[in-house]
Amino acid sequence: MLDIPGDAVLTEPVRITLSGNDGQLVHGHLLMRAGRFSKATVVLTHAGHAAYSEVLTVLAGDGADLTVVTLQEWDDRSQHLAEHDVVVGRDATVKHIAVTLGGGIVRLNTNATYAGPGGTFEGYGVYFADAGQHQEHRLFVDHEAPHCRSNVEYKGALQGEDAHTVWVGDVLIRAAAEGTDTYELNRNLLLTDGARADSVPNLEIETGEIAGAGHASATGRFDDQQLFYLMARGIPEAEARRLVVRGFFATVVSKIGVPEVIGHLMTAIDQELEGAQ
């Protein structure tokens, strides 16, 4: 259990690393609780070789400001099945950021609910699937309290034969949730033939008294025109591809807000690209 006291303001991120060994089967449940008017960032890293079944419960008290970053940097033989349940208190803000760069099979379900009006949930994600990997991210945002907000943005890149990603975003605006403002976006970049990205945004609205609601999804191949533009200015092809992919991910990665984590992830993305060359 991680308990952040009320009114506490943590200037440095809390770092938790879970490392598997020899592929052992592990079941884990972690409770994160942020007290009233607290502010903190928690970075949860998964690495090594394991079969991990995870439950993460996040409780944000009234007026809290909590950022949770979950990094999946598993060995390619690993399996990770996870459920993250987020409860957003009255006038609280929770930012949940999922980054998946490793693992043979990774499936992460994130559920967000609101304990009172005025809450904000922001769900961001970055994933990069290589040959033979299956990465799946499913989100359910349940707007039951009035005057709450949610914004979801996930971006993924795929390369190699049988690389497969699935993104499903579900937003439910219940009849009592007047004044809701919500949007969800998923974009996928196919870098090679043989890769497949499934993207399914869903939006269910039970009241017309809302501030706004929308969703968008797009999956496309690498933009050869962008590549040509950079190469025409003297940039080698490998470097040009790296710049395009970095730019694709940068807007989401920057929302992490921890400079050393951002730098580490952009380096890891570069290494993913180098591995395919």
Automatic annotation (TrEMBL):
Pfam family for this entry, one: SUFBD_core
Similarity field: Belongs to the iron-sulfur cluster assembly SufBD family.
Domain SUF system FeS cluster assembly SufBD core positions: 21-248
Organism: Nostocoides australiense Ben110
GO biological process, one term: iron-sulfur cluster assembly
Annotated protein name in UniProt: SUF system FeS cluster assembly SufBD core domain-containing protein
